[in-house]
Amino acid sequence: MMNMTAENTIQNLTKKDFESGLDVRWCPGCGDYAVLSQITKLMPKLGIPRENYAFVSGIGCSSRFPYYVNTYGLHTIHGRAPAIASGLKLSRPELSVWVVTGDGDALAIGGNHFIHAIRRNMGLKIILLNNRIYGLTKGQYSPTSELGKKTKTTPLGNIDRPFSPVALALGAGATFVARAIDGDQAMMATILERAAKHEGTAFVEVLQNCVVFNDGAFDRLTDKATRDDTRLVLEHGKPLIFGKERNKGIRLNGMDTEVVTIGENGVTAADILVHNENAAHSGLAFSLGQFEAPDFPMPFGVFRSVDKPSYQELSRQLSESARASRGRGELAKLLNSGETWTIK
Amino acid sequence: MSNAPVTARPIEELESVVIRFVGDSGDGMQLTGTEFSKAVAKAGHGFVTHPDYPSEIRAPTGTLYGVSGYQIQYSAGQVFTSGDAPDVLVAMNPAALKTNLPDVKRGGILIVNNSAFTPGNLEKAKYESNPLTDGSLQGYRLYPIDISALTASALQDSGLGKKEVGMCKNYFSLGLMMCLYNRPVDKEIGDIEKKFAKKPQIAAANITALRAGYAYAEATEMFAVSYQMRESAVKPGKYRSISGNTATALGFVAASELSGVPLFIGSYPITPATEILQELSGLKHFNVTSFQAEDEIAGICSTIGAAYGGALGLTTTSGPGMALKTEAMGLATILEIPMVIVDVQRAGPCTGIPTKTEQSDLLQAVYGRNGECPIPVIAANSPADCFDAALEASRIAVKYMTPVILLTEGGIGQATEPWLIPDVASLPKMEVKYRTDPKDFKPYARDENLARAWVRPGTPGMEHRIGGLEKDFLTGNISSEPLNHQRMCETRAAKVAGIAKDFPPLKVEGPAQGELLMIGWGSTYGSIAKAWQEANAAGKSVAFVHLRHLNPMPADLGDIIGRYKKILVPETNLGQLSKLLRERYLRDVIQLNKVQGKPLRVTEIYDRILELC
Lengths: 344, 613
Prior knowledge:
- Helices cover 30% and strands 19% of the residues of chain A.
- Chain A has 344 residues and is an alpha/beta fold.
- Chain A has 2 domains: 2-232 and 277-316, Thiamin diphosphate (ThDP)-binding fold, Pyr/PP domains (Rossmann fold); 239-274, no CATH class.
- Chain B has 3 domains: 11-229, Pyruvate-ferredoxin Oxidoreductase, domain 3; 241-426, Rossmann fold (3-Layer(aba) Sandwich); 514-612, 3-Layer(aba) Sandwich (Rossmann fold).
- At the A-B interface, strand 1, strand 2, helix 3, helix 5 and helix 11 of A face helix 1, strand 9, helix 9, strand 11 and helix 11 of B.
């Protein structure tokens, strides 16, 4: 119903039109700036009127995001953004609803809402800015902090095993799962655009450097000197090859995945797995989602992208068929339903 | 009454009767009670029912804690409650007799399923000897009937197994009661055929059992009389029997239809509120979206999202769920968006006794949030009243852009009474306008009621950002400026306080001043009204007023309180309204409290009145 105005509002919009003009209060050098920049750059390109975007967030550094985008925005309570966004999307399916969250917000306090939004395939774009630390509360470990890590609440080292957000999302049945990193904006742009166009839940983990409390956490993934050996770029239909020499790859060994070197021990290019975003089952994507340094490269790109009906579409169909079979509900008829009797 | 059965026995006229059906939770007592109340309704009598069942779906058979009951009071006159003490107890086993006997009127009728009084069942019920034969029931009119055996013999040719036959005994006892109380069975037979349309063999067996029970009561000379009630003098019109939870659901659909605003319910199943979610889930041909959320928090949060999107938001719960929704209620308050939280109260604290009724969430509703967080609170006083209360809650929510808490109770939500179906044209108008004019738009600019504008995402030129952080008085942008925060807190409080200007003058029953004023809220209405009526008849100077609005309180309540020497506050908690009244009006009040998971009895209030004046 709002599309009447689409033409005049989409016309000639630029990145600038999507910036709210409020002072951005992230620390200088924070990885969140890169994500904000890529999203505001992407929005004018999507053909969606500005007023039809809504950004919903919870609590944490990442959750300040909606204030900086000139669209409709709701900055809510810790962990609950997926639930709030679900209600909004379900009641207003024509809106493009984005959830911007963090590793604490989505995976600790909000874990339940996160997995259930994904399970339902609710049409939300969930962008998780993962810095592997609690920033706003000044430096406690998060559900993605590595084992052994020393933080203010783990002075003797972290014994809390971390989640892989990608594996968690896949385990919850996600239909679109991707990973990006703040230092590679070109790749981030591509991934965000694909996420924006996905009908069901699109989940994107963005590894993001916290300059104050976890600085350098992803250096090996961004440094020119090391990144080719530490990253595995996923491309649909292409072999899972990485390394400076482009000679390392992922091979299936029984039901497990392993890193091999092409040309060694009889391994040839034909042995390397070919990435398939649309596989019938998410098993291989799940395996990739658990890759961690130092034994494995960190995969980036789209792990999985399959088309399944979204919750809001199924809900719309239910209402439509209820109206088709019973007619549009009439209040008087409803009040007078059931067994009635008349007193004269 | 034209097709009432012809019996040779004398027919005794009754003014009112209280019947309680009790048995194992698998004995079908809820069904028997419901069917009996339908038969009563069709005769045009007023009635109030009270289902009372254990939390376990099927507790082990024969146990004291597995007893399920259904009580109905019906009358030729006005019925206020489901009755204090049963005149008749229909007990299907020893445990049911044992747990319910203390409530039965001395000299009352006990119809007991003799077949179930086996040594094993007696032991489970902790009876040392058989009460049917040891003389302990001498003060009652005892009718031991082999209900199981008689049902089995009536169904010996039905081709059904022992288990299915056993399940038909509730229809036998229903037939028995319909005969004793002169109710025709034809309609019930039609209902059984409909109910079991897909299982014709079961339908036939239930009909046979019903007829057998009826015939047994008619043929044996066991009952000396049968009973009849004169036609009730209730208001003319079209009625239906309605439970509080159904009435609540219909009230919100009505609010949606009257305002043209879509209804969104986001809820998590919880006893005794679940039926509201179930009811609305089946009404998708209206402008209703239902969402069974992953937990209580997601229930209210999805509702907040939908209300932000322009829907009338509704989330339904009970005490423990209210506790979980607390933080989100704060969000709805600071966002200033319209939604209703329905709390069908149950016995607490914590999980408490889920299936038993109580009024103990009042202070939670009024105060239970962090920060200065005012939320309007209203309460329904009977099952049918839930419809009006839902409309009122919705009206306040959309007019003042605020979350509203509607308190009902298990004893209202799951009880039924006849409802005079309102004419749609007579329902209050509810006008809602979303703001679409971007000129000079400030998200937190307010109208004369201090309500801000409802702006739906998707409205061009009005993009804005709001949230749970304190915000600037006009722009809604984040602000931690000290004076702005005080101003916002005071404005939110003033907005809620200002709602009282809409309330109609309180209706005081009884003398306008004098010795004693009773103040009640919620389900105690029936017991207070009846006790008041009896006290007046006994010549006592007593008045009462019942509160729909608990926060803010009606503006005229202070004056009214000042006109009486003593104030009595009956409630099923430890004195929560009493606390509020003392705090608001600096007046001491006399408490009458009961927390037994049961409604206050008329006599409990009446006796207290006699002590006080």
